[in-house]
Amino acid sequence: MTKVGEHTSSIHSTLEPAAWFAQALAYMRIQQWDEAERALREALGSAPEYAEAHCNLGYVLEQLGQVEAAEAAYRQSFELAPALLNAALNLGVLLQSQSRFDEAESIYRQAIHHHPDQASPWSNLGILYTALQRDQEAERCHRHALMLAPDYRKARFNLSYLLLRQGRFDEGWECLEARGLTPHAGLVTAPRWQGESLSGKTLLLICEGGHGDAIHFCRYAILLQQQWSVRLHVVCPPALQRLFAMQDVFEQAWMNPGQVQCDFWCPLLSLPGLLGTRVDNIPADVPYLTVSSDFVQQWREILPVNHMKVGLVWQGNHKFENDSDRSLPGLACLMPLSKLRDVHFIRLQQEPASQQAADMIELIDLPDEMVDFADMAAVIAGLDLVISVDTAAAHLAGALGKPCWVMLPHYMADWRWMTVREDSPWYPSLRLFRQSVRGDWVGVVNRIAQALQAEVSASNESLS
Predict the structure, then answer these.
(1) Which of 76, 80, 202, 381 is deepest in the core (most CB within 10 A)?
(2) What CA–CA distance (Å, rounded) separates 405 from 390?
(3) How far is CA 213 from CA 180, 267, 270, 290, 433, in A?
(4) In this structure, what is the dihedral angle of CA atoms 312, 318, 321, 324, given to the nearest 10 degrees?
(5) How much is the average pLDDT of 269-279?
(6) Partners of 386 in the beta sheet?
(7) Would you say 123 and 158 are in contact if contact means Cβ atoms under 8 Å apart?
(8) Please, what sign has the CA dihedral across residues 319, 323, 329, 335?
(9) Would strands 308-313 and 264-267 be described as parallel, antiparallel, or unpaired?
(10) How confident is the model at residue 37 (pLDDT cuts 50, 70, 90)?
(11) Which residues contact 142 (CB under 8 A, 6 or more apart)?
(12) DSSP code of 129?
C-alpha cells in the first residue's frame, strides 16, 4: 500500500508539469508544505522555465523558513516573467520584511509599470510608504488603488491605519470596517448592531485582534451602558475571561458566542465609529477596569514593602507581525536600569529571563499562580509604575489608571500611539518613549533611566 506523501515512479513519472503544479496547489491549500515543495520541484525538473512554479516554490519555501531560497525562487520567477504579478508582490513583501526598502520599492514600481490598472501593487507600495512614515505618498497610493478597485478591502483597511494614526478618525473608522468580520460572527444568529436604540436590549460584544485590542476597546461598554439601559455580554479570549467577568458592566464573559442569547451583536472595534469617536472626545476616563481590593491585597503581600515597585515587560507575542521591531532583543537592553537604587523591578513578562540576563538586572519573579490578565491586573494595581513595550500589559496598566512608560519602535509603531506625541489621548497615565532611529533601544532606555532616577529622587525627597 502506498502511504500518503510517498512517490511511486509508476504513477508520478506520467505526470506533466501542469499536473505537478496542480498537485502542489492542493498541498498548499492544506498547508502540507513539504509535499508542495516536492511537487513543485518535480514540475520544474521537466519545465525549468515554469515561472508560476518558481513563484509558488518561493512561497512554500517561505513557509518552511528558508528565506534565502525563497528569495532566489521569486527572483527566478520574476526574471522569467517580469509581468507575473504574484512574483513581484511576494518578492516585495519578503524584501520589506528584511528592511530592504529601496529594493522593495523598486519591485513594486516595476509591478505598477507592468500592471498600471491593478490595485494590488499600488496598495503594497502604500503599505511600504506607511511603514516608512512617508504619509503623503502612502495616502496617494492607497487612494489610487481604491480608484482602480473601489471594493478592494485590503487597500481600504490599510488606508484606515494611516488615517487613524493621523487622528483623522471620521474616515478612519469607516475604512477600518474593511478589516472583515471576526470568525465568531458566523456563530451568532442575532442581527449586527448598527447604532439603533439598545434600551431594554441585550448586546453581545465580540473581541477582535489581540489581547491589547480587547483591553483598549472594552472601555466602550461603559459608554453603551451610560447611553442606554442595555445588558452587555462579551466574548473574549480565555486569558481575559476572568478579568472581564469581574467587571460590573458585563453580565457575563464568554468564550463561545453560540451560547449567548442576545438581541444584537457588535465587533468591539466597530464601537468607536458607531459612537462617533474623534480625537477631542476619546473616552479616556480611567480606571475603566477594576479588580477587587481583596484580590489586590493577595498579590500585594508578595511584593516588596519599601521603595518604588516597577513592573517590566520587554517582549510581546512573538507571533505578532511586527514583534521583532516592537520587542527588545532581550532583557540586557534594560541594563541602564540596573544602576538605579531604591527601585524593585518585578517581572511581568510571561516568559522567564535567561539566567545570564537575570544576572545583569535584578528581577523579582512572581509565583506561577499568575496565569491570566486578572492576576496581572491585581499585580499592576500594587505597583508604582509599569515599563513596557507595546503589548497588552501597557494597555492593562492604562485601563487601570496606573502610570506606565511605553517603549515604542520607530518602524511601524501602532496607529493608536499616533506619530510624535509623548502622551496618549487614550490613556492619561501613559508616557511614550519613542525610538528616534529604528532599532535604537539604547537611547530609549537611557531616557527612561534618567526619568526614573528623577522619580526616585523626588519620592525620596518627599519622604525626608
Answers:
(1) 381
(2) 10
(3) 16, 11, 12, 17, 20
(4) 60
(5) 97
(6) 311, 404
(7) yes
(8) negative
(9) unpaired
(10) very high
(11) 122, 123, 126, 155, 156, 158, 159, 162
(12) H
Question: Cβ distance 186 to 248 under 8 Å?
Answer: no
DSSP character for 191? P
CATH 3.40.50.2000 is held by the domain 293-463: yes
What average pLDDT does this structure show over 243-267? 94
The mean pLDDT of 404-418, rounded to a whole number, is 95
CA pair distance 110, 183, nearest whole angstrom: 36
Distance of CA 215 to the CA centre of its chain: 13
Q: Which residues contact 224 (CB under 8 A, 6 or more apart)?
A: 198, 203, 230, 232, 271, 275
Which residues, other chains included, contact 30 with Cβ-Cβ below 8 Å and sequence gap of 6+? none
Strand 264-267 to strand 202-206: parallel, antiparallel, or no bridges (unpaired)? Answer: parallel
| Residue 371, C-beta contacts closer than 8 angstroms, at least 6 positions apart | none
In sequence order, the 6+-apart residues with CB closer than 8 A to the CB of 328 are 314, 315, 334, 389, 407, 441
Q: What are phi and psi of 310, to 5 degrees?
A: -125, 125
Residues 6+ apart with CB under 8 A from 394: 212, 313, 386, 388, 404, 406, 430
Spell out the domain ranges in the chain. Answer: 11-179, 183-281, 293-463
**Which parts of 228-342 fold into alpha helices (H)?**
238-245, 271-274, 293-300, 323-326
Nearest to residue 221, comparing CAs of 191, 186, 245? 245
**Which is nearest to 405 in space by CA: 384, 381, 419, 374?**
384
Q: How does DSSP classify residue 290?
A: -
For residue 288, what is its C-alpha cell? 475603566
CB-CB contact of 309 with 384 (8 Å): yes
Judged by average pLDDT, the poorest of 275-289, 316-330, 415-429 is 316-330
**Whether the predicted pLDDT of 283 surpasses 80:** yes
Is residue 366 scored above 90 in pLDDT?
no
Cell readout for 165 is: 494614526
Q: What single-letter amino acid sits at 462?
A: S
Return the pLDDT at 330.
86
Would residue 254 be called left, alpha or beta, if left means φ above 0 and alpha means ψ between -120 and 50 degrees?
beta
SS3 category, 63:
helix
For the 11-179 domain, the top CATH level (class) is: mainly alpha
